[in-house]
Design goal:
The two termini are about 35 Å apart. This protein is of the alpha/beta class. α2 packs across α9. It folds into two domains: about 110 residues, Aspartate Aminotransferase, domain 1; about 220 residues, Type I PLP-dependent aspartate aminotransferase-like (Major domain) (Aspartate Aminotransferase, domain 2). The chain contains twelve helices and 13 strands. It has a seven-stranded mixed beta sheet, with helices on both faces. The structure holds pyridoxal-5'-phosphate. Pyridoxal-5'-phosphate binds next to α4.
């Protein structure tokens, strides 16, 4: 089956299709930040708006220094991209040759499949365990001479669980392939494993400003990786793929982490509240979303019912390895979470 990365539905599309006022739509389908963008980013964009007539500074030194300070890695090990999707897409074209293999631990973020195929590589799928953790022995069994990459998302989209230190270490010691650890949601988890890049040359950790910093529409991502690979990426990336406003907004949000802390506190409270009250089977989560099983209903039925009431959630049936009853729900503001519960309670009472 060819891969189909299906992005979450937009408010514009839902407003058009269902005739709903776009202002009234509650968007809990794409794991964006319910608090919006960091105010520091808005300030920086206003301040630097005149700079859009000027190319960004080549090398992105100031931005890399700011990221280096934030995550505690050396700037030479950091690369930046127009979102982490763009960064990985660019890097894969360098790493993967025709028919090289990439192991993808499913269910997980579907975009990996798309970029491996775009680079003419072959995807090899390894199932996560019933509790969605990584089974290193199964991964090792799937490794061949052609394996170039192993994707691990942590916290994992859509299941919300994280890989632990021992498992990552075991995996890195078991292979020479490059392990891509996607930490897009790590700010919502208890710890990052980025420090492992100091000890393992075969680890790349990718991160983004799209989630906890609220900058999904601006497009800014980065990765920490070994210096050789970083140099190759820098030669390969489009010279100015990160724009001037993203550079300044990125530096600004890292200079004051109060918005990040506010976001994380809201998400921690919201996910506890939702897990306690959702009338669905839910799974533990370290991210800003909750993975749930809506059986005996289908994910389509539930997502469709909610969207008609103006609430967008993610029907996970297009995620390889998910069932037809899995959904993913972004943690919203308290009033949005309460509205979601109200509508879902009505669904459960009336649709059985
Ligand atoms: C696991 C994961 N990685 C990466 C991304 C995309 O990040 P970016 O916006 O930096 O391209 C997403 C977005 O949903 C994601 O869920």
């Amino acid at each position: 089956m060819p891969s189909t990365y299906v992005p979450g539905r937009s408010a514009e599309e839902v407003a058009r299709v269902y005739g709903i006022n776009p202002e009234a739509i509650i968007k809990l389908g794409s794991n964006e930040n319910a608090l919006g963008p960091s105010p520091k980013a808005i300030e920086a964009i206003k301040k630097h708006i005149q700079d859009i007539s000027i190319y960004p500074s080549p090398g992105y030194t100031d931005l890399k220094d700011a990221i280096a300070g934030y995550i505690g890695a050396a700037a030479e090990h950091i690369v930046v991209g127009n979102g982490s999707d763009d960064l990985l897409n660019t890097l894969l074209r360098y790493i993967i040759e025709r028919n090289d293999e990439a192991i993808i631990t499913i269910p997980t973020y579907s975009y990996y499949e798309t970029i491996v195929e775009a680079a003419r590589g072959k995807c090899v799928f390894v199932n996560r365990t019933p509790s969605f953790s990584i089974d290193v022995e199964q991964i090792v069994a799937a490794i061949t001479k052609k394996t170039k990459l192993i994707f691990v998302c942590s916290p994992n989209n859509p299941t919300g669980n994280s890989i632990d230190r021992e498992t990552l270490e075991h995996l890195l010691q078991s292979t020479n392939a490059l392990v891509v650890l996607d930490e897009a949601y790590v700010e919502f988890a208890s710890e990052s494993l980025v420090e492992f890049t100091n000890h393992f040359d075969n680890l790349l950790v990718s991160r983004t400003f799209s989630k906890a910093f609220g900058l999904a529409g601006l497009r800014l991502g980065y990765a920490v990786l070994n210096e050789d690979l970083a140099r190759s990426y820098n030669r390969l990336m489009l010279a100015f793929s990160v724009n001037q406003l993203a550079v300044n907004a990125g530096i600004a949000v890292l200079s004051d982490l109060s918005f990040l802390h506010e976001t994380v506190a809201m998400v921690e409270q919201g996910r506890t509240y939702l897990r306690e009250h959702l009338p669905l089977k839910t799974y533990p989560t370290d991210a800003n979303f909750i993975f749930a099983d809506v059986a005996p209903h289908t994910s389509y039925e539930v997502a469709e019912y909610l969207v008609r009431q103006g609430i967008i959630i993610r029907n996970c049936e297009t995620f390889r390895g998910c069932s037809h009853s899995h959904v993913r729900i972004t943690v919203g503001k308290p009033w949005q979470n309460a509205k979601l519960l109200e509508v879902l309670d009505t669904f459960v009472r009336t649709e059985r």
